[in-house]
Amino acid sequence: MPDALGVGIIGLHMGAGQLRQIANVPGLKITAICDLEEALIKHIQKEFDIPFATTNYEELCRREDVDIVSVATPDYVHLEMAEAAFANMKHVMMEKPLARTVDECQKMIDAQRAAGTKLMTAHVARFYGTFQKIKSWTQDGTLGEVYNLYTSYIHNYENIPGFNEWRFDPELRHQLIGGGCHAIDLARWIGGEVEEVSCYSNHFNIPVLQTDDHFNINLKFQSGAVGIVVGSFGCAHPYNIDMHVWGTNGSVIATNTWDEAKLCLRSIDRNKWLDMPVLREGKGLASEFQVLANAIRNDSEIESDGVSGARTVAIGWAAIESSREGRPVQPKLDF
Ligand SMILES: NC(=O)c1ccc[n+]([C@@H]2O[C@H](COP(=O)([O-])OP(=O)(O)OC[C@H]3O[C@@H](n4cnc5c(N)ncnc54)[C@H](O)[C@@H]3O)[C@@H](O)[C@H]2O)c1
User: Fold this and answer.
1) pLDDT at 77
2) Superfamily in which the 126-281+313-325 domain is placed by CATH
3) Which atom of ligand 1 is nearest to 166's Cα?
């Protein structure tokens, strides 16, 4: 095992964010970058003194000095890039969503299993300080047994890159999968696996979008807990990701844009919120890469692995099917 694991990043919009956070992380070395935009490649190669740059992702995947391929390109090329990386026995950091469809997720996991390398789904919201704190309260008994939760991903898509392009063509990306996966994944992370989904959705805000732009999803967890996930993409509402968790000992409400989480504990006063300071987002992208690097070095399991990312995608599609057909749907779990 080399002292520093070589990282090759494909896709230098989101990938540039990764690069900025991991450039100085010990144990990682960015050895190669790839994008279709020549000017962007040149600029980033110079700024970060990166040995190799290309517009051909297959070339990056073949390099000896690349141990981890980070795929930070649009969702519709995730599978082909993962397959190229696994064909060259590389580990993969895959931007969320793992892939566009349940079928693509299965193909990616099959390719990973054949290679015997690691696959991590980059669900960065799990690494936000606020949500890490809430997760720890579900694990150390503070909240007791979780019986209800609410998560949301609220993001107006009218002004983002890809407007009316790949982000608006449901064949290339369905926004409940591409964006809503943040909230679905947080719900799974807190509540565990989901056995049934029912969903209502509507379309009031972005006429050019070919699908609904607001989704209310009801989740029934294997644990007996229930939950609601909201994905909203055309709303007059600031961008945020919310998490409310209700447990037998207490409840918490928080969003990624607040500096505190509001905690209510039965043992203190069940009618009062306590303002608990939290760290907000922190350096989530660097934390993700540290998790993957540790798993490679110790050959250990990754919590947000390929199967986990695939189950999140499966819940999104179960919700879309439920809304279209007007009935509850069981998401695929066995990847
Ligand atoms: N974790 C987060 O919060 C977060 C935020 C934004 C985007 N993302 C994810 O990151 C991925 C990329 O999103 P984005 O916002 O950067 O998209 P974008 O459209 O802004 O940029 C995509 C980049 O990929 C490059 N690219 C496309 N096809 C390529 C190919 N065949 N070979 C090499 N490069 C190619 C493009 O030239 C472009 O520079 C998506 O999967 C998205 O869901 C995650």
Assistant:
1) 98
2) Dihydrodipicolinate Reductase; domain 2 (3.30.360.10)
3) 19
For ligand 1, atom 23, name the residue with the nearest CA.
Answer: 11
What pLDDT, on the 0 to 100 scale, is given for residue 241?
97
What is the secondary structure of 77-136 as a DSSP string? GHHHHHHHHHHTT-EEEEESSS-SSHHHHHHHHHHHHHHT--EEEE-GGGGSHHHHHHHH
The 10 Å CB-count burial string (b at 16+, else e) for 181-198 is bbbbbbbbbbbeebebbb
Mark the ranges of the chain whose per-residue pLDDT is less than 70. Answer: 161-162, 164, 281
Tokens of 269: 């006063």
Q: How far is the CA of 227 from the centre of ligand 1 (A)?
A: 30
For the segment 181-208, what is each residue's pLDDT rounded down to a tens digit? 999 999 999 999 999 999 999 999 998 8
Paired residues of 10 in beta bridges:
34, 71
Domain boundaries, the chain: 5-124+285-304, 126-281+313-325
Mutation probe of ligand 1 site: the residue of 9, 10, 12, 13 with most atoms within 8 A of C-beta: 13
**Cα of 162 from ligand 1 centre, angstroms:** 10
Q: Which pLDDT score, from 0 to 100, does residue 2 have?
A: 77
12 CA to middle of ligand 1, Å?
Answer: 7
Per-residue pLDDT, 310: 98
Q: Is the CB of 284 under 6 A from ligand 1?
A: no
pTM to 2 decimal places: 0.97
- Position 162 scores a pLDDT of 67
Domain 5-124+285-304 coded CATH 3.30.70.20: no
